[in-house]
Amino acid sequence: MQKLLINGKRELSGSIKISGSKNASLPILAATILCDKVKLKNVPLVKDIFTMLELLRFIGLSATIQKKNGIIQVKSNKKNIKTLAPYNLVKTMRAGVLVLGPLVAKYKKAKISLPGGCAIGTRPVNLHLFALKKLGAKIKIKNGYIVAEAKNGLYGADIKFPSISVGATENAILAAFNAKGKTILRNCAIEPEVKDLIKFLNKLGGKVLIKGRKISISGSTKNLNTTITHEIIFDRIELGTYMIAAALVGKKIILNRIDPKIVKKEIEILKKMGVRLKVNKTSIEIIKSLEIKKINIETKPYPGFPTDLQAQLMVLMIKAKGKSKIKENIFENRFMHVPELKRMGANIEIKNKTAIINGPSKLTGAEVMATDLRASVSLVLAGLVADNRTIINRIYHLERGYELLEKKLKNCKARIKRI
Ligand code: UD1
What we know:
Layout: E1 4-7, E2 12-17, H1 22-31, E3 37-41, H2 47-59, E4 62-66, E5 71-75, E6 84-85, H3 87-90, H4 100-107, E7 109-113, H5 126-134, E8 138-142, E9 145-149, E10 158-160, H6 166-177, E11 182-186, H7 192-202, E12 207-211, E13 214-218, E14 227-231, H8 236-249, E15 250-256, H9 264-272, E16 276-279, E17 283-287, E18 296-298, H10 310-318, E19 322-327, H11 338-343, E20 348-351, E21 354-359, E22 367-369, H12 373-385, E23 389-393, H13 396-399, H14 405-410, E24 415-418
Helix pairs in contact: 1-2, 1-7, 4-6, 5-6, 6-7, 8-10, 8-12, 10-12
Bound molecules: uridine-diphosphate-N-acetylglucosamine (UD1).
Uridine-diphosphate-N-acetylglucosamine (UD1) is lined by residues 23, 26, 94-95, 121, 123-128, 165-168, 189, 193, 306-308, 330-331.
């Protein structure tokens, strides 16, 4: 099994081009079930995307990738469609459940494996099913599968989510888009990735509007028979990860191809921590930090601070003077990186949903491993700032979501390699 080897304490400089967003690409790929021909640009070529393409091909769509420029083309064959998402594909990537909405909407039925729990929590799909039922689907759980049917198609409805979920909002939008009549969804997730999905759907001739946390959908069922082209938004979590890397070990790092307006919260928090950054129109420049200050934060749905950057920010807190706190409000089990960071020398206590980080601590390299994507990348950040050598195991987690991680860091002079 491959590992990453990092020799830390090397000052980084250079520029990094931020990739397209994995979490925006996945629901848009699920949306291609509703289309004839789609051309997607700026798709990050990471494991989760390949798994989603495998699922689309299993369903009966044809999908091709131009690896050189991240272009994916998907065509609907219309014939031989299987309305099934099998366990082996959904278990490795929970976003597989996003094909539920489009399949039921277009083909009036779907059988989707329940994704089960994962390292960061139980991750139920009750909110996805709640919305589909309100749109008229009959749903049963049988042998570990969601079996959904809407014999007469789906109908628009007025739905208020009891709590905010990114995936359930996306699944509901996708289902409602092909339903008869207008749907209003309330208490929605309004992450930039949800907005990118809406931007894509509006190119198909429908009308999806967003106002606060309310989304109204007047869908489109017509086949356009032209190719819909869409460029995926940049990956704000990848940007945040490299902003933190730059704050930890950067001399001068420029992060390109981004829109700073989307990461206002992250910029505000890093500035409060004393990180010196210059915000340009499509890039952010980070200059060597003089002193990192403590801070208390909570993870929240967008526009709050993202749970997907919590583990990475914790590494910066280890270098801050004083007691910092992180309250994790989104997932119940998302401090899996803490024992590994402690093995590297961090002083962190966990009390219920809150991690208390006593800094600054000196980190020293160790052999470590993590059980999810963002926890794994936090160990890469720790390795970059630690003395000596860090070996990261189970790097397949990183491959799920970070495009060209080693290359991007190596280009900035990091001493990192795969063994
Ligand atoms: C998406 C992101 C993930 C991110 C998360 C929160 C993708 C592919 N993944 O995941 O990287 O960490 O948003 O920003 O975009 N919940 C329920 N019932 C449901 C659905 C969710 O109780 O039916 C709960 C979850 O357990 C969690 C919370 O709602 O506690 C938020 O989860 P959700 O926003 O749905 O996350 P995902 O869409 O799975």
